[in-house]
Design brief:
This protein is mainly α. The chain contains nine helices and two strands; from the N terminus they run αααααββαααα. It has a two-stranded antiparallel ribbon with strand order 1-2. Strand 1 and strand 2 form a beta hairpin. Helix 5 crosses helix 7 and helix 6 packs parallel to helix 8. The chain is flat.
Length: about 200
């Protein structure tokens, strides 16, 4: 869902209010004639809606459990390199640093650094999301293809998370094992009656 989709959900009255708040492009910007100006105004309104949508998502992510918030952030991030940086930022310990008066950054050594989101929290969020998708699918709220696509998106995030965690901690680390063991029944259920197949 993007800003144009959100705009289509507005009532007539809300759309008129939005039109009243449009940012008018200065003369000379937006190409030749009035058509260029209208295109610029449309772009401005779209940018405003996109900004509002992003801010709403960010505020929502602060209000939910950390794992759910991170999963939502990763799923709405389309660029793989940015997703990788987000995974690294949230799922691996952040270095403790201080800035000296002369502007130099010094990294402090210590064993008590924690990640912003634990692996268990992300696994729990993926379990919850896949269960919800399968519940809606089996209740007739969505078709099989859409549900499969949503689950595949979550699986892709899981694969990227496994790569980042394996790179940071090592491929045979306890962290990688915890992620794999936690997600095994989610994406490879051992029974057709699994909650990750039938939902809740």
């Amino acid at each position: 869902r993007d800003a144009s989709y959100e705009a289509s959900l507005l009532s007539q009255e809300e759309q008129e209010k939005l039109a009243d708040t449009q940012v008018v492009a200065p003369p000379g910007e937006g190409g030749d004639g009035n058509a260029g100006g209208e295109n610029a105004n449309t772009a401005n309104r779209l940018q405003i809606l996109q900004h509002i949508y992003t801010r709403c998502q960010e505020e929502m992510e602060k209000a939910v459990p950390p794992g759910i918030g991170l999963l939502n952030k990763l799923l709405r991030t389309e660029i793989p390199s940015i997703r990788t940086n987000q995974i690294k930022h949230y799922l691996t310990p952040q270095p403790l640093t201080v800035t000296t008066p002369d502007g130099k950054t010094v990294e402090l050594k210590g064993d008590n650094q924690k990640s912003l989101v634990s692996i268990e929290e992300l696994v729990s969020a993926m379990e919850h999301s896949v269960r919800q998708i399968r519940t809606v699918e089996n209740a007739g709220g969505t078709d099989r293809m859409t549900a499969a696509g949503l689950v595949e998106n979550i699986r892709q995030v899981a694969m990227e998370a496994r790569f980042v965690i394996g790179t940071h901690y090592g491929p045979d680390s306890e962290e990688v094992k915890a992620l794999e063991d936690g997600l095994q029944p989610v994406f490879r259920p051992d029974s057709a009656n699994s909650q990750f197949v039938k939902g809740e």
